[in-house]
């Protein structure tokens, strides 16, 4: 079966589909999406049910997607001492007693040691300013590396400059690391950023993740979701004041790609899409016929406030918090929020349409 994404009519569900099984209460959808992978040619991926665009070999389950999005948002928002705390939490959960965090002690400080991984003889120095400045970063590397050699030289073979520069280190900072490594045979210098932290994060067990970020929805939660779980979410959003109503746009093709949404968000939206027909049915049966449009307008207004100020994944997280409350709530409540977000993503009320090429 081949399914295409079509322009959405104003008041109907926006995906053209055909049932795979007449016995299934919710027909499966197969969708072809173009996923542009960085530096490579585009890849056609056929996926089931909704808007997932991930190749099967990297497909996340629902819980993984929730946790990974929370991890990345925490990484991006942490600065200074809060980043140090974030780093220690991650490493302690991942490596347990093998990781030795180090805090400043009186006038001795930390002696240029923000943590030590014993089994790998790896010493860490954390640097997470509000803004990464090249000259200050190089000075920090010089001071901390020389200090680490003085105090811990007999203990480490790998020295890690752990930083919060999401887009990578400036070229002169990278060169400084290579120069120090060349001048110190036997010691490997490593810059650790978001992707290195992500690799460590993926070592965490479910118990570790729950202890850090709390409980999140599972596939079992999705199966149990009903109207009553959606009602409180919808009514809360509807009560938010909003400006004059605008026309709902049609669903564009390639919307996930156009908004540079991550693998985690794509997985969450796919899960929400599986339950988003409940939202449409809810609006159709609710006593207040204006509820659907009032909720849509509230979403549009909130999105416009966030648009252009933060990254797309952060916008998604902000909308999720705004719709569901600052406290995560029970997993079923979280999934209800996700169903609502997916519904309005599909109906073009939130996030941007892809640009139409001139013909």
Which features does this protein show?
Trna Endonuclease, Chain: A, domain 1; 13 helices; 47% helix; 359 residues; two-stranded antiparallel ribbon; 10% strand
Short description:
This protein has 359 residues and is of the alpha/beta class. Helix content is 47%, strand content 10%.
Mind explaining what this structure looks like?
With 359 residues, the chain is an alpha/beta fold. The chain has a domain at 72-201: Trna Endonuclease, Chain: A, domain 1. 47% of the residues lie in helices and 10% in strands. It has helices spanning 62-77, 80-95, 134-152, 171-183, 194-201, 206-213, 219-224, 227-238, 255-258, 263-285, 291-306, 312-324, 331-346; strands spanning 30-35, 43-48, 99-101, 115-117, 122-127, 158-163, 188-192. The strands form 2 sheets. Strands 3-4-5-6-7 form a 5-stranded mixed sheet, sandwiched between helices. Strands 1-2 form a two-stranded antiparallel sheet. α3 (134-152) packs parallel to α4 and α8 (227-238) crosses α11. It is elongated.
**CATH topology of the domain at 72-201, which one?**
Trna Endonuclease, Chain: A, domain 1
- Reading off the top of the CATH hierarchy, the class of the domain at 72-201 is best stated as Alpha Beta
As an assembly, this protein is single chain
Number of helices: 13
Largest sheet: 5 strands, mixed
Give the topology, please.
Layout (H helix, E strand, L loop, with lengths): L29 E6 L7 E6 L13 H16 L2 H16 L3 E3 L13 E3 L4 E6 L6 H19 L5 E6 L7 H13 L4 E5 L1 H8 L4 H8 L5 H6 L2 H12 L16 H4 L4 H23 L5 H16 L5 H13 L6 H16 L13
Parallel strand pairs: 5-6, 6-7
Antiparallel strand pairs: 1-2, 3-4, 4-5
Helix pairs in contact: 1-10, 3-4, 8-11, 8-13, 10-13, 12-13
